Amino acid sequence: MKKIVTIQDISCFGKCSLTVALPIISAMGIETAVIPTAVLSTHTGSGFTGYTFHDLSGDITSISEHWKKLGLEFDAIYTGYLGSDSQIQIMSDFFDDFGKDDNFIVVDPVLGDSGKLYAGFTDKFISEMKRLCAKADYILPNMTEASFLLDIPYIENCNEDSAKEVLRRLTELGCKTPILTGVRSGELHGAAAYDSERNEFYFSYSKHIDRHLHGTGDIFASVFTGTVTLGKGLQKALDMSVKYISDCIEVTMPCLDEMWYGNCFELCLDKLIGYVKE
Q1: Coil/strand/helix, residue 16
Q2: How far is CA 198 from each of CA 102, 166, 176, 193, 233, rounded to the nearest angstrom?
Q3: In Å, what is the CA distance from 35 to each residue of 42, 74, 202, 265, 269?
Q4: pLDDT tens profile 109-122
């Protein structure tokens, strides 16, 4: 079996981060190791207040040291939400220890959404995230995150021409293959990728639904990482990720009053398994 290690927080209630990544990647037939960066009682999105937060930075290093002694190896390393400057440095060291010529690194540079930084993030954190992106084979920012990484104005409706320019600039961070989510083409909504070594762009779309749902970026990153790990190629990775998100949104819309805190991705796992087998 292929093996992925994903490193991000656990929200005990609310569908995001590890509670999304673990079941999705596992359903794709990939052994999934995890390192939690923090434990929260709920995710931090709108609707939840008074949540608990426990930082696990010290445990990350201990886990890493144990794994080195065991000689563990992974086909992919995938990071999501990181809660502090020190955690970014810990991840940089982890990449040095576990990154190999025959595996790859995915960084989802979680910084914000809708043109705004998430609470607690600073200019220093953005600078550190840029350095982490330089060590990645793939980065997966949304347009908000790309704007902070590149210090450019936020583009609310990013079309293909704008996406191409943003993607080219993202390679200047040091990553050879950036992926940009939230790209628009008329009534369609999707993602774009740029293989800088081949100088080729890739796009994938589904119908745009004007509704923000928590955890969508985590779903995309998890499916994308799993698909690339299975060796299916960049266009296929985009197509599967966009298609699966569209499936999740479609089944979530009828029960939004109940499921405002996340996507009903569980109801679509059978479809994801089918896409993997195609």
Answers
A1: coil
A2: 19, 17, 10, 12, 13
A3: 18, 13, 31, 22, 23
A4: 999 998 999 888 99
